[in-house]
Design goal:
The complex is a heterodimer.
Chain A: H1 3-17, H2 19-31, E1 34-35, H3 36-43, H4 47-60, E2 63-67, E3 74-78, H5 80-85, H6 89-100, H7 102-114, E4 116-118, H8 119-125, H9 141-163, H10 168-181, E5 184-186, H11 195-210, H12 219-241, H13 244-247, H14 265-276, E6 294-297, H15 299-319, H16 321-335, H17 364-370, H18 384-412, H19 414-423, H20 428-447, E7 454-455, E8 465-466, H21 469-489, H22 491-503, E9 506-507, H23 508-515, H24 519-531, E10 536-540, E11 552-556, H25 559-587, H26 589-595, H27 604-607, H28 610-642
Antiparallel strand pairs in A: 1-3, 2-3, 4-6, 5-6, 7-8, 9-11, 10-11
Chain B: H1 9-24, E1 32-34, H2 35-41, H3 49-61, E2 65-70, E3 73-78, H4 81-88, H5 92-104, E4 109-110, H6 111-118, H7 122-134, E5 138-142, E6 150-154, H8 161-164, E7 169-170, E8 173-174, H9 176-194, E9 195-203, E10 255-263, H10 274-283, H11 289-294, H12 297-309, E11 313-316, E12 319-322, H13 337-342, H14 349-352, H15 376-385
Antiparallel strand pairs in B: 1-3, 2-3, 4-6, 5-6, 7-8, 9-10, 11-12
Helix pairs in contact in B: 1-3, 5-7, 10-12
The chains are: A mainly alpha, B alpha+beta.
Subunit structure (chain A): Component of the RNA polymerase III (Pol III) complex consisting of 17 subunits.
Subcellular location (chain A): Nucleus
Region (Disordered) (chain A): 382-421
Chain lengths: 652, 386
């Protein structure tokens, strides 16, 4: 594992779980899996303290363990992915807040800081319920209580602040919504087992079940094997997501995200209400969750959501806010139907099949459901007459004409305007008109060179709109690299980098001719870019002697290499940013310590001097700024590493 | 070198005839005449081949006709009269050199190549070249393919595109201002074709609207010519792109123009293709007619490609559309282009932090000569925003 990632994850673990835990984490990260006794012996930490640290690490998911059957000792493994995900917490909260409202954001924030949480305890923490001691039996229970004690202070503080979860019913509605959208998932038996061990277990189970001779060689057998493995994995996931003891009194509200669109009418309505932001009044006894239900945040799901946000932003930049709102609705409805970031091609039955055919389809009706009804769609559609006038009259008169056009635009759909005001969005004619407009926006998205979405090809079913995620992830990646190159080195290197990416390997002279630049300038820019590792050169000898002066030198841009390079740099920059927080903290140590004293905490405004308050505010601003920057760096990482879903460097 | 007798009357008449025929053809002086061609033209001056032969020989001797071979048949082409007189004064080496340069035509010939082919003393070649150049018989041109090599061609010839590099080269050098102006013209043309604008005027409020977030710099509020702060945050939900056009004379005009750039319905029309742009460029008066005639579709396509790489245009179907928010420079705009473009580069999370642009990033590490604590860039970065 790259050095910069080790550094970063250790820092993140330290910020999240405290120094001792960070020490243990760093040791595990460095030395691989260990049992508790050997860990304690090598890391020179008393076994008792090591155990405490490990238990809190396991709760937060930073460390995973495999317990073999019988009395064999458990092995502990550091989880890179979980440690890195700490950096993503603020982005996840942002996503949830944007989608499901500020209260939901608060709930997710709390669950994130706890690692996982029991519904009953959450309600307790929000002070909605007298803390009823639940019956023992669930083995993870005790540990949760322990961690609750440590974090509760902060939780309480925040809850009383801005997030306003007022009743238990409201909390349950929020949790159900989050469970349905897949952002929260239930904790299952296998949550704390490292992915690699899970893979081993699955493979072992499949082999002993279906391949009695224990041989999986040969292409045919291998294919059958990988399909069987995938099926069993999925089965286990389903098992994890549903357990009878927990779900009996929730009446099966918990389903896998892929299934909820076929759910009964009532739940769809609920969902719609939530997206519109007025869910507080929704009080339905049937959504009450078992207080024994334990949930955690599913980061894969959040990454899908973050990818959608990112795509939506790109669409906004290129096609305007209203088209992007329509796109957002499409993404939202498609998202509900996908399970993973990336469909592996070998999962497809037939090689002739277009992989796009396996992407989920959203019907225009579903898209309309997700779309904010207040958005005026027609306004953002230009018409042919508009353009004609501009061309005829030239730019000088365009201003006046534009004014006229503005009025025409409004008059184009007067019926709709009136209809909306008169009887809301109910009449058939109105909704037909609205579908038409949505479709117009979707076609704009389809027409764009990035192909934001696609309509089903003729002759195929089901009809509807798809989002070609794989290609779009690739273009997001290219865009991110372009932005890096442009901001660092300027426009000319950007032009050359894109040129090489489009045209492949080229000689200096060809580059100069295509980019319309002087060879001299091209040479200097290329040299600089090669030095930075952005482009590379290949030597092709023209003759047997391989004389350097007679060789051809072909320049090329290797996206994969640059991607890895920039990713490592981003890890490093993140680590530096986090370290800088500590450096800055030193300067404000006195005031921070004073503010954290138990007699001052919570009433800073009365007990601190004016100058101290200014100091404190300054520190908070600095911390906020640096942490916001970490979140932005995480945006870069998610584009470079996670959106395609094909990267396996993090284990899962 | 024996001095030649004066050109005979019939010879002169034949030469005039041939010159006229050459000038009337498309090829000009490159027009070659085969024996049959000359016989046809020479019906007045020479009745049969026997009479024609000495005439042609005389013209060749006077260097007015150039003898060459095409498809194993002899053929002749004309030379200008003043060139001919100059040639007749040359010595054998010089004549040889001249013939090679002449053969190279518009492509030109490298000096080194010339030395190799003529197989005479290199010094003599250099001397001959100097003399020819001084006599305005040949000239040296800059070859774009090999700028270091000297390339020669006949004085009256116009170098081919291969040699000059095409329309965008001026005396062997890239004409950057032409490319720039042409790009701007293309952006203007495509922009007008590809988006619909609606403009609404609104009464400007006396004070600018309050900042959206507390983080906004309070100093900028209240100022009339408020420059938009760095909107690195793209969370703005405004449905329009706003331009505040406050030119020098209308600062009292209480209206703000809000321009909304709207996409045209998809698949409803063809966006301008490279051919369409080419025909616009060549028919407009914006560039010199001779230059316009020279521009090819391929060259325009090249400019368009570069604009696509520069994120100015995007390809839609077979045509092109400007990227949303791209502006063209109005004619006569003399502002600093870099400043205009400068604030557009937003970068990403990585390049916003000092590390993303740090020159000593490789050296940076805990306990190293450079680290997060000793970093001067961080201090500056934190101060900037505070």
């Amino acid at each position: 594992m790259a050095q910069s990632l080790v550094e970063l994850t250790s820092l993140l673990a330290a910020s999240h779980a405290g120094d001792l835990s960070a020490q243990i984490f760093a040791y595990l990260a460095k030395h691989g899996r260990l049992t508790l006794p050997s860990l304690a012996a090598h890391a020179d930490v008393p076994a008792r303290r090591a155990r405490t640290a490990l238990s809190s690490l396991v709760e937060t998911g930073l460390v995973q363990y495999t317990a073999a059957e019988g009395t064999a000792p458990a092995f502990y493994t550091a989880s890179w992915a979980a440690a890195y995900n700490i950096a993503r917490h603020s982005n996840v909260v942002r996503l949830v807040t944007e989608r499901h409202g500020i209260q939901a954001g608060g709930v997710v924030k709390n669950i994130l800081s706890l690692g996982y949480a029991r519904v009953g305890e959450l309600a307790e923490a929000y002070g909605l319920e007298p803390g009823s001691k639940r019956d023992s039996g669930v083995e993870s229970g005790n540990t949760v209580v322990g961690i609750k004690g440590t974090v509760n202070g902060a939780t309480h503080h925040k809850v009383s602040g801005s997030q306003h979860v007022n009743s238990e019913a409201e909390l349950h509605v929020i949790l159900v919504t989050l469970l349905q959208s897949g952002i929260l998932v239930k904790i299952g038996r296998r949550t704390f087992v490292p992915v690699s061990d899970l893979q081993d277990q699955v493979e072992e189970a499949v082999i002993s079940d279906q391949f009695p001779d224990r041989k999986v060689t040969g292409p045919k057998k291998q294919a059958a094997f990988s399909i069987a493995v995938r099926q069993l994995k999925r089965k286990w996931q389903v098992e994890d997501a549903f357990s009878e003891t927990h779900d009996l009194n929730s009446k099966g509200t918990i389903k896998r995200p892929g299934q909820h669109f076929t759910a009964p009418n009532k739940r769809v309505k609920l969902n719609g209400a939530v997206t519109n932001g007025n869910h507080a009044t929704e009080d339905d006894s049937s959504v009450k969750l078992s207080s024994e239900l334990t949930v955690r945040v599913d980061f894969t799901r959040c990454t899908i959501g973050l990818r959608s946000l990112r795509l939506q932003n790109t669409a906004k930049r290129l096609l305007g806010p209203i088209t992007s709102a329509v796109y957002g609705a499409l993404l939202h409805s498609v998202e509900a139907k996908i399970r993973i970031l990336h469909t592996e091609v070998n999962e497809l039955q037939d090689e002739d099949d277009d992989p796009d055919d396996f992407l989920p389809v959203a019907h225009i009706r579903e898209i309309a459901e997700y779309l904010d009804p207040d958005i005026e769609l027609a306004e953002a559609l230009g018409s042919e007459e508009d353009k004609g006038k501009h061309v005829q009259n030239g730019p000088s008169t365009a201003k006046r004409k534009g004014q006229v056009n503005g009025h025409q635009e409004g008059e184009d759909h007067p019926g709709e305007e009136l209809g909306r005001i008169a009887n809301g969005f109910s009449s058939y004619r109105d909704s037909a008109k609205r579908f038409e407009h949505i479709e117009a926006h979707l076609r704009l998205l389809e027409e764009h060179s990035k192909t934001f979405c696609k309509y089903t090809r003729p002759g195929k079913t089901p009809k509807g709109w798809r989002v070609p995620f794989a290609a779009l992830s690739k273009s997001l990646l290219d865009e991110e690299l372009d932005a890096t190159v442009a901001a660092r080195y300027g426009k000319v290197p950007l032009r050359l980098a894109r040129l090489l990416r489009d045209r492949g390997k080229l000689e200096e002279k060809a580059v100069a001719a295509i980019a319309m630049m002087r060879i001299k300038d091209v040479r200097s820019v290329m040299g600089e870019m090669q030095h930075q590792g952005l482009v590379d050169v290949q030597e092709v000898p023209k003759e047997g002697q391989r004389q350097p002066s007679k060789n051809l030198y072909l320049w090329y841009f290797d996206t994969q290499r640059v991607q890895a390079l920039v990713l490592q740099q981003t890890y490093k920059a993140m680590a530096r940013t986090l370290q800088r927080v500590q450096v800055e903290k030193e300067d404000y140590r006195a005031i921070i310590e004073k503010a954290e004293r138990s007699d001052i905490r919570g009433q800073e405004s009365e007990k601190l001097e004016q100058s101290e308050r200014v100091q404190l505010r300054k520190w908070r601003e600095i911390e906020e700024r640096l942490l916001t920057q970490v979140a932005r760096l995480d945006d870069v990482v998610s584009v470079l590493r996670d959106f395609s879903g094909t990267d396996i460097t993090m284990g899962n | 070198m024996a001095t030649l007798t004066k050109l005979s009357g019939p010879g002169d008449a034949l030469y005039t005839e041939l010159c006229k025929a050459a000038q009337n053809s498309i090829e000009g002086l490159r027009k070659v005449f085969f024996q049959s061609d000359i016989e046809q033209l020479a019906t007045d001056t020479a009745r049969d081949k026997k009479e024609l032969l000495p005439l042609v020989q005389e013209l060749v001797n006077h260097s007015l006709l150039r003898l060459s071979k095409l498809d194993r048949a002899l053929c002749w082409s004309t030379r200008p009269r003043d060139a001919a007189t100059a040639i007749s004064r040359l010595n054998a080496d010089e004549k040889l050199v001249y013939s090679y340069v002449e053969d190279a035509h518009q492509k030109g010939i490298w000096l080194r190549e010339l030395k190799k082919r003529t197989n005479i003393n290199p010094n003599a070649v250099t001397k001959a070249m100097n003399k020819l150049e001084n006599a305005h018989l040949i000239k040296s041109v800059k070859n774009i393919r090999a700028p270091a090599q000297k390339t020669y061609m006949l004085y009256h010839l116009v170098p081919s595109d291969d040699v000059t590099g095409g329309s965008f080269f001026d005396a062997g050098d890239l004409d950057e201002s032409l490319i720039d102006e042409l790009s701007n013209l293309i952006i203007f043309h495509v922009r007008m074709q590809s988006w619909a604008d609606t403009k609404t005027k609104r009464i400007k409020r006396e004070t600018t609207p309050p900042p959206l977030t507390a983080a906004d710099d309070p100093d900028t509020a209240g100022g009339k010519k408020r420059k938009r702060g760095p909107t690195t945050d793209i969370e703005d939900s405004a449905a329009t792109t706003r331009k505040y056009r406050l030119s020098a004379y209308d600062t009292d005009d209480p209206t703000i123009e809000i321009i909304t750039q709207l996409a045209l319905p998809a698949y409803s029309r063809a966006y301008p293709s490279a051919e369409a742009i080419h025909s616009f460029i060549t028919t407009t008066d914006a560039i010199r007619a001779s230059k316009a005639a020279q521009l090819t579709v391929a060259e325009i396509q090249n400019v368009v490609d570069v604009l696509v790489w520069d994120d100015k245009l995007e390809k839609i179907g077979d045509g092109y559309r400007t990227v949303r928010g791209i502006k063209f420079r109005p004619p006569g705009f003399l502002g600093d282009e870099e400043a205009e473009d400068g604030d557009k580069v937003e970068g990403n999370g990585l390049t916003q932090v000092p590390c993303g642009r740090c020159p000593v990033f490789e050296l940076c590490g805990e306990g190293g000569p450079v680290n997060a604590g000793s970093c001067v860039y961080w201090g500056r970065w934190l101060k900037e925003g505070a």
